[in-house]
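Repro case for the chain-ordering regression, as requested:
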Amino acid sequence: MTTASSRPSKSNIISFIAVGCFFSVCLIALIGRFFYLQIIKHDDYERLAISQQTSDTAIQAKRGSIVDRNGNELAVSATAYLVTMSPASIKTDADRELLASGLSEILGIDYTTLLEKANRDVRYVEIIRGINKEKEEEVQKFLKANKSIYNIVTVTEIPKRFYPHGNLLSTVLGFVGTDNNGLEGVEYLYDNYLKGTNGKIITSNNARGTSMPFEYEQYISAHDGCTIKLTVDLEMQYFLEKHIQETRINENVQNRVAACIMDVKTGEILGMSTKPDYDPNEPFKITDSLILDSLSKYLDPSGAMTDEYIKEYNKTIAELRTNKMVVDQYDPGSTFKIFTSAMALEEKLPILNETFYCSGNITKGVITYHCHERSGHGYENFQDALANSCNPVFIQIAEKIGIERFYNYITIFGLREKTGVGLPGEVAGIHHALSSMTDYNLYSSSFGQTFKITGMQLIAAVSAIANGGTYLQPYIIKEITDADGNIIVSNEPKKVRQIVSKETAETLWKLLEEVVARSRTSRLEGYKMAGKTGTSQKVSNGTYENNKKIASFVCFAPADDPQICVLVIVDEPDGAQIYGSAIAAPLGRAIMADCLKYRNIEPVYSDGSTSVVKEVPNVLGYDSSDAASELASSSFSTKIVGGQGLVTAQFPSAKIKIPEGGTVILYTNDIPYERKTVVPDLLGKTSAECNETLLAADLNIAVKGTNINYPDVVAVSQSPEAGASVDRGTVITVTFE
Amino acid sequence: MTSVKNRAAEPDTPLKKEKILKPVDFPMLLIILLLLAVGIMMLLSAGHAASLAKTGDSYFFIRRQLIWAAFGVVGMFVASMVPPKFYSRFIPAFYAVSVALLVLVLIVSKDSEKRWLYIGSVQFQPSEFAKLAVIMELAQYIKKNRDEMKKFVKGFVIPFLIFTVPAGLVAVETHLSGAILIFGVGFIMLVVGGSNRLYCGAAVIIGILGAIILVFNVNYMMERVLVWLDPTRDLLGNGHQPYQSLITIGSGGLFGLGYGKSRQKYLFLPEPQNDCIFSITAEEIGFIGVVLIIILFALLIWRGIYISIKSNNLFLSLLSMGIVSRVALQVVLNLSVVTNSTPTTGISLPFFSYGGTALMVLLVEMGLVLGVSRDISPK
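-- result from build under test --
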């Protein structure tokens, strides 16, 4: 009875089973839910999980190098170390002193400075940045020996950029910031190539980002940055900078001097610089003493830095980093006459057969344009006008070309758009719009004023003329190679368009060669060089500043087969001379001379007859008439002293070398002779006069120098000196300039 | 009849002095020990990162859990051997004390969540005891009033109050999951105890309607529901745990990452040692492991029901059924929460979650079930 009544009833049991079934259904449903989450949606959740669980510790990729065309390193990355500490974690003063004394000794930092840092109540203080591996090891050793400060000081690997040549090419190369990002120049523009891809150690991290003991770790190696090979030639860059720095100092240049060397057959930039510049190893520091001097006027009388000084300092260093050749626009001045000439020739205007007249000024409408020669050049042909840089003539030519054609040629010459040379911050020119261009604008434009272009645009267009009229894409990046040595980018010479015909180009070569040849300051001994100077007025706020000039010179050589084009821009010379012909031309010539020598292009003296030397044959004992014909067959002329008969003496004697066509003096036996003669003074004489004078003195001439036939080319030195007593027939070497 | 009833519940032990204890149900014992072993294994893996983060010692949690488990297993065997006749007389007092402690904790606890009581350095949750007290009290009450269970007051209102009063107190502690458990278990016992289905059905309908009204009128509850529907809605707040839990479970896949290889336990997933321990389990041993563990729980439930059915005594039967239902309900709720199948509420997983009081009480309860099983075991 009791047993039966205390047992669960059938209805109890049924409801037990019902409850069991209910929970079973719940559990089965949950299994379904797990199936959905773990099997069907697995991939989605796995992705979410991995993205939040992994934390990357970057493995710094090594920044790629920048090298010149021959592989010389211009910018390289090295590993350096950053030492930091957490002063707030230092427990005792004894530890502070230990740390300060130990590290100051190893790192060469002032002890008190370090102790002051150690006393700050902060968790992060930079002790020193950029120490090398040896120092790093010393620091590690010191820390290991002193457990109490071991966790206070942290040494981290940081990449350090090093520019082995200091200031060299700095305005092109640019620099990197402390975060290893390129900030200017090639470093900036090609940062993505150079910096590479950082690798990472993916560690499973906890959600608080602190490290936990964990097995899961994945190592993704870093891809080092690409190496960039520039078209620049370190050697050419070196002398380019040497010359422009000299000019900057000598001519007291108030602004900056810029120069560029371009290979006219490829479009490659071989050298490019602006001075003064900066040292990319210390990109925030002005190193140039002249600039520091000029800034010192902002200093407090006590020598303390004022806010104004800091402002000016920062402004100046920012300017020093710019690459004037591509970022500064200027009025090209008379160098632009090359293009005005090219337009006229290309349009087949009969300028070469025309005679122009320059009265010293020309009046067009309400404006009178003056020639730089106020008294006028008088009658002149086109060659004269170009050599004289005669504005009135070019105004007349521009008038014939007309606004529309002039405007179109500016576009064709690429002066309206950026050259795309591959440098950051490049600008295009500022030009008159076709619709608003007046005749006055046209006249001024003919001699390169009232509009602006960059040096880069000018040299690219002149190089086009120099290579026969084909505008080549100028470029400074030759090759980009990845860390494994695969070439990623390779720039080849690229024709953009024909801007003038070959015929026009070659006519210009001759015209410009003559321009240079006629200028004492431009012409380059032993070489045929074409070029044009310019002195432009600087425009400030729309008005010309008469006292501020830009002297420039563009040249290419050899003029019969141009290879190299050089442009120099001297902004605000303030010395004895301010004209392009006086300042820029000698600078450009000096650079060109070094370029040609570097390219192994030997000087050729243009007067062929004096350049070939031959041995004088022995005619002693000959009959004088036989001797004369013998000498004539060796293309020597003969001067016989005395009558017909046997030759008793000859000057120069046999085996002596004299220039072809030189004179051999023969004495016949019945006349006593004076062996010696006195060398006459030849300085200031033209070559013809020298020849005459020497011949009269029974001496021979060897000519050095080019273009001796021009009337303004005169002897500048002679060897032996005037007054020396020499044998008759001796060769006197005369240098003309 | 009446006099018998007025005494404490009296199992049929006519020859108690000579009687040697019959053995416990072996399959049930095996299932319990298996679950305990698996649970501790999983805590060892899932909890060490959180343990290190919270205490500075990777093995702090597992050491404490092992100590509690050891005590728990001893408690389980003791409980399985204590004659029901002996403990049944203390049930009303146990119930009264439990309710009193629930009131006390509300008064003395200074925590924002008023769950813990401290006696010296020992802390415990009165709600854990309340769960068992409610089950025991209800089992005893229903046994006593089994013939009057269809009546409204005696068969519905009084037993309803027996569990709703503690459930309400736990709810006031802001321990919502504890309240839900007590309420759920109490209600199941009311139903299986033979209360009028009509009243029960009406209570369910009223409860559901009340819940709906509550959700739509209380902002934070509505927010909970919205976050449940889309955890990404509040990733830094309430959505964080369910979102991370889903990632944890989902990233486990079919075979899991391998025991000990969870990544999510590194502080991504909140409470990896407690409420979310099963997410880590799913991540480490995959869907296959999940199914095996769920099967283990199902076996526990069905073996418990089998014991309840076979019991000769309604009190023991209901006690066993109540305990099994409590575990089953907690498992289902916990798994629902970690899979975001229901809105999130803090509910631990029996045998797995870190927590001394809960494990102790659970094992004692299992001991009670095993004690019940002694009567049904084959001779």
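Ordering looks correct now. Chain A has a mean pLDDT of 85.
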